[in-house]
What does this fold into?
Amino acid sequence: MTKISCRKIRDMRQTAHPFPMSTERKTLEERAQMSDIERLRHSCAHIMATAILRIWPDAQFAYGPPIENGFYYDFQMAHRVTPDDFEKIEAEMKKITKENQKFEWKGISREEAKAMAESGRLGGLSERPGNPSVFKLDLIDKIPEGEQISCFQNGDFIDLCAGPHVGYSGKCKNVKLTSVSSSFYLGDESKGQLQRLYGTAFPSKEELEAYFVNLEEAKKRDHRKLGKELKLFHIDEDVGQGLILWTPNGAVLRQELQNFIGEELRKQGYSQVFTPHIGKLALYKTSGHFPYYKDAQFPAIIEQDQLEKIAHEGCGCAEMTARLDAVSSQFASQLNERAGREIIGQDRIMDPEKLLDGFLLKPMNCPHHIKIYGSQPHSYRDLPVRLAEFGTVYRWEQSGELNGMTRVRGFTQDDAHLFCTEDQVAAEVLGCLSLVKIVLNTLGMTDYRVRVGLRDPDSSKFTGNPAQWDKAEAACREAAATLGVPFTEEPGEAAFYGPKIDFVIKDVIGREWQLGTVQVDYVLPVRFDLSYNGPDNKPHRPVMIHRAPFGSMERFCGVLIEHFAGHFPTWLAPEQIRILTISEKVDAFAEEIFAQLKEVGLRVTLNNDADKIGAKIRNAQLDKIPYMLVLGEKEAAANSVAVRHSKRGDLGVKSVADFLTEVTAEVKERKL
RNA sequence: GCCGAAGUAGCUCAGUGGUAGAGCAUCGCAUUCGUAAUGCGAGGGUCGCGGGUUCAAAUCCCGCCUUCGGCUCCA
It folds into this structure.
């Protein structure tokens, strides 16, 4: 049994690796294509290593590549580097750039390389008897037979390295260390911990400074910071890690988004459904998610009488687990028969008497929607059936992986499952994409790309027949092409049960976030034995499309907060208008306007505190309220409002009627 | 989960063994003011939690929890 079903969907819905890194070995040709800035940064890594060795000669270096925003070097030594050491290391690096050392390439034989590593010379400033370059020895062994082995030398430092490098160390003066952390050698946990020191470097001082200014900007828009300042959400220790409490302001944001998405779904013929937060284990045994993804789920909820029964029997943990995981022989043979192969092995079959039953917090919504589809017979005339739900799911993400709203343990997907005929797949995929496009355009998130995941032609790791795949892949490809945004086709990136389309959205500071996905699935309809009655009056298997265009409301709102830097367009703003009085002489007039705006459904508050107008404006600006209405005696006399916008400044005096018309239109049209 | 750092008032932070501090926010009083901070006063903390060392712990030691930066993982 291989991993099944919504795996990739979930991956896309939840994952965001802004800087994906590959530990795969690059070929010499690929290395030679290093860009100028990568070359510079890679040289900086060597200079940093040189500096570290001058201070701590025992350091053993592993791997030091350039990365998206800088470079790092992994190493091992007795001293633990802390940010307090940065100044010292940077000072030494500065000396090395001043020395303007030449980077010299030297081809060496495997034997020479090994000898240099044995003596500790490789990745060192001199021979270090008794301290062989262990990582370099291992790296040499990983170089394929016949490939040129080379080293680079700058000053006394010689490193096993394919290059390329800048000519002289003098080029590397605009460099700064950024952080220190730990890593595993080649990402392998069993190989022990290394220290990883990160830095960044640019060709010019201006670019280096701009990078840090940009970083500061990024920190200001961090959704965790803004979430607190604007009171959008709260995470409470006593509730649990990774569980979002949507506070009133955040709830407005989410509700408005859901209303918007819901409106579009109705236009596209979706049916709204609601399903519970738990389901019986059998449901997930059928889908294949239990017990295979147990580690990523909250543990099963076991029924009280069953718990008592096993406690009475004196049954241990291991036995309990086995009984939970197991199925009856009838269950297994049914499923195996439907699949046409053994997907549940003999080892999981147990005497029904012994089986334990229970519930699972749902880790995805598909099985529940499938059961709704299956609850009544369908004619081909009814298809496609499109079931949508803002469905909350729970997953046991590792504690170290949790992050604000973007990586959580309970989240609500803007989920839907479409059940259609094979011929309808193309049109339905297209429909899903157009929905995404409408929503992203409305939010001004225009900087995104699309990835079409196709099956790996050289692999047999996909189920279903090739003709089906060809059709579905063509549908995805064509659908993506209609979007009018760049898309890439990535063979081998499909889920094994069907091709998919992913949305990768770039936020304002250039970070990429994988949010939604549209995914064709031929497997779950089989496992759940779904059917529809065809024109030939015979049962046919529907095709399922899973789609969650925004992934989760949590992640999407997190990205949205950063996208707008907290300055939401009026239709999304938790507080749209704040009335600010100049003195209490206009309190009655202000109350009148307040009531009038509230009456038409605008989210408005009244600030008639004894503060000066400057202070009131300042507070409203800090709260990022789109509209401020400044009311004084002049306005009261003319039944007008002095309008100030948080981003556009003073917009002058308008009649109350004009303002109302403008703002209601702005909200209704969801203007940016 | 792993490595490292951090956790002091609602928020941002100061306080390195000797009576817990500031600014903002909150509350009260005065002020009635025209586009980013009016003045004065008051309240507010089991210094993340639990142990230990000490005459004495926010401060030193140990364990745990949470957060952050990475790593690993992500159906």
Remarks:
- The two ends of chain A are 49 Å apart (CA to CA).
- Residues 1-24 of chain A have pLDDT under 50 and may be disordered.
- DSSP finds 22 helices and 28 strands in chain A.
